[in-house]
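Page 37, continued from 36.
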């Protein structure tokens, strides 16, 4: 097993490793999977070096922003999957579900008091950076955060890229070496670590691990948690097994049509992987590995010149190239922003030209103005927008192309750009399974000018922000089945 690259490891504190501790603790927070996971791999490295057992803590608090049945169910699916996968591995898996606000406080510290060191996931968005910083100050032993977010390490860049073109050109110049530094498929396979430890009964009684039955719980089981029960679970289930099945469907039945039909809602040829990537149930390394096997591709086929072009550099099929531009360029562009700026979700993080033109037109008359409640309930005059919002309410997702028109219309129908941003973030993070993610913030802020350029002619409300209309969208896309399905 090759060592985890140094540029993916970040010490969170300056506390020491305690060699006489009882075990190495892997605190699974963002990369919630057992395969192709640099964080788990790093924890295995420490366990082997120190000749200590390994404990994997995967916890779910109930007080996170937008906590709901939908998000809890999806995460719990993944925990059930991890429990099954780790049952026969040389590791103690500790799944913990907080039943009341603050009930889980102290668990991480109690485990760290018994451990040699702690390894966790490095994730640049939502509340996780603050949680990591607080943990680093609290823990008496070394805490390392490991970047398993994407193909390009977060530390490989020292600036924020302002356009997809500039980032793509950077990737084409730098990515070749990183394509060879991949996480081990199964870091626990043949791992030479001692048998799992027995944790103190007092600790296990104070913070009882979730049972298999609880992780498989139905709606009644979810009702016991103090979370938002109005946001019901989506039909899509979470976990690495479901992620793998979604990837198989995409490669077998959809990728051949992805380039030509990916934008058409009626075609349903998108991958459906974004929720699994967000919750860490699948790694972008795994997606890329499966895709390259399907394409019978090797790194030797890569283009030599970094042009920044959207196609041709990978030298794969049209569908594969378009998909990789979404998986790597656009997805990791958002991670680049979130890892370098703490204000990534604030209005003032927009480019100066965008703030200037939106400010100039902030007082323009709006043809329609809707409240958050009206937006949330899909009560607008526009059938296409309402259909997209109903898909979000029902399924926790919006078809890829329609996400853009969804955001543009909220900008047009809100009293101000700042209020439009608040509505977009609230609806997306509350209902979308892939919300609260660097990639989803990229999409939201794109509608307001991030990663874009000024457009002519200058229009009311939008100014020089790129304009989109439902009428033009309906003219370009096949929508009949989609509109019927989400007609309400």
């Amino acid at each position: 097993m090759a060592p985890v690259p140094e540029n993916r490891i970040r010490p969170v504190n300056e506390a020491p490793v305690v060699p006489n501790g009882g075990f190495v603790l892997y605190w699974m927070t963002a990369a919630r999977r057992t395969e192709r996971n640099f964080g788990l791999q790093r924890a295995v490295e420490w366990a082997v070096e120190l000749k200590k057992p390994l404990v994997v803590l995967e916890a779910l608090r109930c007080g996170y922003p937008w906590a709901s049945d939908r998000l809890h169910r999806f995460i719990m699916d993944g925990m059930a999957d991890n429990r099954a996968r780790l049952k026969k591995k040389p590791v103690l898996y500790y799944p913990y579900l907080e039943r009341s606000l603050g009930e889980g406080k102290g668990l991480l510290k109690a485990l760290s008091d018994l451990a040699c060191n702690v390894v966790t996931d490095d994730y640049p968005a939502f509340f996780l950076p603050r949680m990591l910083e607080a943990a680093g100050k609290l823990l008496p032993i070394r805490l390392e955060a490991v970047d398993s977010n994407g193909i390009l390490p977060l530390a490989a860049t020292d600036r924020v890229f302002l356009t997809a073109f500039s980032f793509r050109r950077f990737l084409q110049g730098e990515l070749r070496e990183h394509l060879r530094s991949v996480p081990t498929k199964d870091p626990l396979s043949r791992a030479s670590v001692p048998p799992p430890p027995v944790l103190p009964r007092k600790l296990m009684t104070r913070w009882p691990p979730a049972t298999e039955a609880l992780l498989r719980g139905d709606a009644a089981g979810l009702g016991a948690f103090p979370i938002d029960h109005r946001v019901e679970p989506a039909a899509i289930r979470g976990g690495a097994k479901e992620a793998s099945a979604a990837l198989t469907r995409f490669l077998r039945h959809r990728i051949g049509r992805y380039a030509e039909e990916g934008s058409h809602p009626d075609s349903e040829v998108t991958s459906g992987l974004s929720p699994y990537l967000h919750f860490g149930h699948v790694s972008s390394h795994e997606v890329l590995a499966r895709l390259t096997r399907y394409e019978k591709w090797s790194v030797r086929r890569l283009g030599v010149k970094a042009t920044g072009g959207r196609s041709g550099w990978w030298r794969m099929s049209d569908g594969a190239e378009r998909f990789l531009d979404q998986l790597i360029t656009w997805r990791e562009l958002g991670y680049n922003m979130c890892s370098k700026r703490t204000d990534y979700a604030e209005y003032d993080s927009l480019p100066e030209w965008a703030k200037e033109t939106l400010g100039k037109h902030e007082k323009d008359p709006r043809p329609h103005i809707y409240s958050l409640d009206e937006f949330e309930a899909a009560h607008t005059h526009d059938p296409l927008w309402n259909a997209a919002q109903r898909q979000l309410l029902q399924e926790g997702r919006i078809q890829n192309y329609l996400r853009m028109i969804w955001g543009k219309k909220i900008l047009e129908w809100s009293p101000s750009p700042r209020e439009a941003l608040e509505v977009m973030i609230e609806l997306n993070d509350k209902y979308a399974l892939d919300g609260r993610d660097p990639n989803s913030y990229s999409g939201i802020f794109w509608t307001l000018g991030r990663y874009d350029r000024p457009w002519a002619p200058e229009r009311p409300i939008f100014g020089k922000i790129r304009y989109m209309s439902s009428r033009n969208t309906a003219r370009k896309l096949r929508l009949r089945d989609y509109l019927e399905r989400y007609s309400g």
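Residues 83 and 444 are 35 Å apart (CA to CA). Flag for discussion at group meeting. The beta strands are 9-11, 24-28, 54-60, 92-97, 117-121, 143-146.
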